[in-house]
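for the recovery benchmark. tokens below, seq after
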């Protein structure tokens, strides 16, 4: 293995994405990160590599990673990597990073990724920015991002010209956004929330030409200090906000009659073929469970239709739904910030407007 020095930044090149698999199935977050990694690799003029670990994985699944942007896939194969263990995965990934020296390493902020990322960063003596919602290496693109998401006077602010990864994430409970860089150490590591990055269209040509490089890790049972005896799953019904085509979200505006407000949202979502979301105020009050939450501290969604019922439009919530194709807002306050991002706005009492809306939709369908 080549000598590894995290401070020798010039020795590092390339963008890597950890492609998570569970029971042989590549997770959706992997395609999202590859799509984003492709943009970063293009800006840097470097190769994009996926890294997948497991045992006896279907090669078609591995090739498919090329369809989402990967130029090369490192397949670290070992029976010891069939099921996730912190020790096994961290050693295998760190050994490969130390050998190949990528400059950027992206990992999904899943339960698995949030365990693996910090362990690898500590072993590699580099930094890690967790739960990122935006990534840039190009300074001009970063300026464009700031123009639409901040109150910084971008044109009169001096920016250092470099290709450091600019990792933006919510801070102070989601009340502001912070951009973090790691200029002195490599690789620059980031975990990214599922649903934040949009998946590019699958490219058959990319899948056909991707280079798959199998890696046999220097890994023994003695390296793994936990033995998996059994895996038990408990079924819990969770709302699929990220994959929904229509999301109907409720906010503090339902407080005068919470049960009725939620029932109306469920009925409207039903006639539109969608699911019910919520603002943080609603989940904090316990009116809906946290898996319904949309926003910086919840889920980021990109539905075809997003309906905001009684949601004022705080920046933390808007950040999680502003890229929806069509946004419909219903609020009594005509000055509510939600109307600034809405495609269509209705100023009125949601308890009066929504029943009429449901009636009209049903009539149109009939």
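predicted aa per position
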């Amino acid at each position: 293995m080549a000598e590894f020095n995290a401070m020798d930044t010039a020795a590092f090149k390339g963008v890597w994405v950890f492609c998570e698999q569970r029971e042989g199935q590549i997770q959706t977050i992997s395609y999202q990160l590859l799509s984003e990694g492709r943009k970063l690799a293009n800006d840097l003029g470097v190769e994009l590599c996926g890294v997948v670990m497991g045992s006896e994985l279907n090669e078609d699944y591995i090739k498919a990673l090329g369809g989402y942007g990967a130029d090369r896939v490192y397949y670290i194969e070992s029976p010891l990597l069939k099921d996730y263990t912190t020790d096994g995965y961290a050693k295998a990934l760190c050994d490969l990073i130390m050998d190949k020296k990528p400059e950027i390493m992206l990992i999904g902020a899943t339960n698995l990724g949030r365990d693996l990322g910090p362990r690898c960063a500590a072993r590699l003596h580099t930094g890690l920015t967790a739960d990122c919602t935006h990534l840039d290496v190009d300074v001009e693109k970063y300026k464009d991002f700031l123009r639409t998401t901040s109150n910084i006077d971008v044109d009169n602010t001096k920016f250092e010209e470099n290709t450091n990864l600019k990792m933006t994430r919510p801070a102070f409970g989601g009340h502001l956004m912070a951009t973090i860089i790691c200029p002195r150490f490599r690789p620059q590591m980031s975990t990214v929330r599922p649903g934040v990055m949009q998946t590019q269209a699958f490219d058959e040509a990319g899948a056909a030409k991707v280079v798959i490089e199998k890696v046999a890790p220097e890994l023994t049972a003695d390296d793994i200090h936990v033995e998996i005896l059994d895996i038990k799953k408990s079924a819990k019904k969770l709302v699929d906000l990220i994959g929904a085509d229509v999301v109907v979200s409720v906010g503090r505006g339902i407080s005068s009659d919470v049960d009725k407000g939620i029932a109306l949202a469920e009925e409207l979502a039903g006639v539109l073929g969608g699911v019910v979301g919520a603002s943080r105020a609603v989940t904090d009050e316990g009116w809906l469970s946290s898996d319904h939450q949309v926003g910086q501290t919840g889920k980021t969604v990109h539905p075809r239709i997003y309906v905001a019922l009684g949601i004022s439009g705080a920046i933390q919530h808007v950040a999680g739904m502003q890229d929806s194709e069509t946004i419909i807002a219903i609020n009594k306050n005509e000055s509510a910030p939600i109307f600034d991002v809405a495609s269509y706005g209705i100023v009125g009492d949601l308890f009066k407007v929504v029943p009429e809306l449901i009636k009209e939709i049903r009539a149109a369908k009939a």
